[in-house]
Specification:
This protein is mainly α. The protein has six helices and no strands. The chain has helices at about 1-25, 35-50, 60-80, 90-145, 150-170, 175-200. The model is unreliable at about 210-225 (pLDDT under 50).
Length: about 230
């Protein structure tokens, strides 16, 4: 059971990255929300280096493949992501902001390592940033008012890629924290899958989103009517 769940997680996340690269270049955008992308890239490179310093494990090779794939997605962010920001954000401002987010993500990963040690840090940080990613995918769909840079393949593969280690670590290994965060990830992931399916069926569902109308109770002074 454990090898199957590990393989399922590795395959599902690889599909996420490959689909994100494909749609990123095709639609000239980035397909993974910035904060989640930065945290993922920092996690993968950090623990790949950790593995390279000792005997390379199977997970270490998987992390290396993920890091290389994520590197391409990072490129799509810096190459095409400026178009997703307001006009007042200049190209230098955009590059500085992206660099700041990636730098902060590395700091977070290293703080997890310092506080919890490698065994727990890999798990806690991975699941917490997974929960953040699940919420940010929904936010990205709403912000873009459609499925630009998003596919059902990414949505389903992301869910399965997180569900498998949730069962493996949370249920089989009996870690309640991982189980709880994993369940929350599934809730958000299933909501996102439902939204993607709805927008595939009704592409204009978010096109009428706009500012809220003025309250109906606004007082309007009555006009004096002069008799003829």
């Amino acid at each position: 059971m454990e090898p199957f769940l590990s393989a399922l997680s590795g395959l599902a996340w690889t599909i996420v990255y490959m689909a994100a690269i494909r749609i990123g270049f095709r639609q000239r955008t980035y397909a993974i929300p910035l904060a989640a992308l930065a945290l993922n890239f920092a996690w993968e490179t950090t623990y790949t280096v950790q593995d390279l310093m000792g005997p390379m494990s199977l997970q270490g090779y998987v992390n290396l493949v993920w890091a290389l794939a994520d590197l391409v997605i990072v490129y799509t962010f810096f190459a095409f992501g400026r178009a997703e920001f307001p006009h007042f954000v200049t190209r230098p401002m955009f590059a500085l902001w992206g660099t700041l987010v990636f730098g902060a993500s590395y700091a977070v990963q290293w703080l997890f390592l310092a506080e919890f040690g490698e065994h727990d840090a890999t798990r806690y940080s991975a699941f917490l940033q997974n929960l953040l990613m699940s919420a940010l995918f929904i936010a990205m769909l709403v912000a873009r008012r459609g499925l630009r840079g998003q596919t059902l393949t990414i949505a389903v593969a992301k869910w399965l890629g997180t569900l498998a280690p949730t069962i493996l670590i949370g249920v089989i290994d009996g870690e309640p924290f991982i189980l709880g965060i994993g369940i929350l990830c599934s809730v958000f992931d299933l909501v996102y899958i439902g939204l993607v399916l709805r927008l595939r069926a009704h592409p204009d569902a978010l096109s009428d989103v706009g500012p809220a109308p003025a309250p109906a109770s606004v007082w309007v002074p009555a006009q004096r009517v002069t008799p003829p």
